[in-house]
Write a structure and sequence with these properties.
The chain is an alpha/beta fold. It has 2 domains: 189 residues, Rossmann fold (3-Layer(aba) Sandwich), CATH 3.40.50; 156 residues, Rossmann fold, CATH 3.40.50.2000. Helices cover 38% and strands 17% of the residues. It is built from 13 helices and 13 strands. Strand 8, helix 7 and strand 9 form a beta-alpha-beta unit. Helix 1 packs across helix 13 and helix 10 crosses helix 12. The longest helix is centred in the last third of the chain and has 19 residues. The radius of gyration is 20 Å and the shape is globular.
Length: 364
């Protein structure tokens, strides 16, 4: 880039992963941008008890502004602080004031300020907009200088271009090797199969299908459930419920189970090309990762060699029976090597930087 950028980022939370699955993605992207000389100010609302469940202090690699969530005036004052930045980003899923921010952030556009919409859940956002012609975001999409997404492949790109986006570019999830890496086994997280994920309406049926049903069909195995929202679910007797697992324990979780399971949400599985952060966290820790089947996994990991694919509870248990400790370790090592070679946040920051530099040249 010709010079470091000042970037204002409006997202759910950088400092708390509590009911905030995008935290790892935000941290990886923002930290990598800082390491390349850019200055990021992250604006997040004091909402959903996230500040009471912080799992990190304000980092050295970003300025964090926590604004009250009492009314739109609070969001408007935060927007005013972002005025004059080189790039202003409104992320999807802030959780409060989303409609207001998606509209008002566009008022910050100027010849020297670009405004981008960064969709951290493109399949769900697009399904919502495509099913409702009156969705307010539809009218704003063409006004953004750029739409970025954390996944979705060509189908997502085509959908946003069909909504008259000027440009849509996926910036996929990735690995931050400084935060997700192998650690010694922790007996708190010992199990044959571990699954880490909050209870969400559009994933719950798939969790029952791939995880709970697998546990019921194979009582000889121990299953470990991490994540919020599962307190009132009647679990099979061989499933241990952990509740919320803070990000500081994710490496231990991934390194202690024989295998780690990823389960995509419904919309992400339908669109494909949408690997969640859990895929990169687990692979970065060298875990033997198993995932439900979805289009595009081979872009990130080679099925059978770097990741295991399951399309049913029976196949989940088949993998558990067939893969011993030595092979599981080899699969995890190959996955980690692939991530370090091709899929770190440093790679993503270079991609974003190149994209913005190309737009600067075109504007000049």
């Amino acid at each position: 880039m010709p010079s470091p950028l000042r970037i204002a980022f409006f997202g759910s939370s950088l400092v708390s992963s509590y009911w905030n699955g995008a935290a790892t993605y935000y941290r990886g992207i923002v930290r990598a941008l800082h390491q390349r000389g850019h200055r990021v100010t992250f604006f997040e609302p004091d909402a959903f008890e996230r500040q009471q469940h912080r799992d990190m202090d304000d980092p050295e690699w970003a300025d964090v502004v926590v604004y009250p969530a009492n009314g739109e005036g609070d969001a408007a004052r935060a927007l005013e602080q972002a005025r004059g930045a080189d790039l202003v980003v409104k992320a999807s899923g802030v959780g409060v004031f989303d409609e207001f921010l998606e509209r008002e952030v566009l008022a910050l556009r100027s010849p020297s300020t670009w405004v981008a919409f960064w969709d951290v859940d493109a399949p769900a956002t697009l399904e919502r907009m495509l099913s409702d012609p009156q969705d307010p975001l539809r009218a704003h999409v063409p006004r953004y200088d750029l739409v970025l997404t954390y996944g979705g492949g060509q189908r997502v790109i085509d959908a946003y271009l069909g909504l008259d986006a000027r440009e849509c570019v996926p910036i996929y999830n990735a690995l931050d090797p400084d935060t997700h890496h192998p650690v010694p086994m922790d007996h708190r997280f010992a199990a044959d199969l571990g699954f880490l994920g909050n209870r969400l309406p559009d994933r719950e049926a798939r969790v029952h299908r791939f995880f709970f049903d697998a546990a019921r069909k194979a009582p000889e195995f121990d299953y470990l459930l991490g994540g919020s929202g599962w307190d009132d679910v009647d679990l099979p007797s061989n499933v241990t419920r952990l509740g919320h697992v803070p990000t500081r324990d994710h490496n231990a979780f991934n390194c202690s189970a024989h295998m780690v399971l990823n389960i995509n949400r419904d919309s992400m599985a339908r669109f494909g090309f949408s690997p969640p952060t859990r895929v990169f966290e687990a692979a970065g820790a060298g875990a033997c990762l198993m995932t439900d089947a979805w289009d595009g996994i081979e872009m990130f990991l080679e099925p059978g060699r770097e990741v295991l694919i399951a399309d049913s509870a029976e196949q989940v248990n088949q993998h558990l029976r067939a893969i011993g400790p030595v092979l599981a370790r080899q699969i995890g090592e190959r996955a980690r090597a692939r991530m370090l070679r091709e899929h770190t946040y440093a790679h993503r920051a270079v991609q974003l930087e190149s994209l913005l530099e190309a737009r600067l040249r075109a504007a000049a």
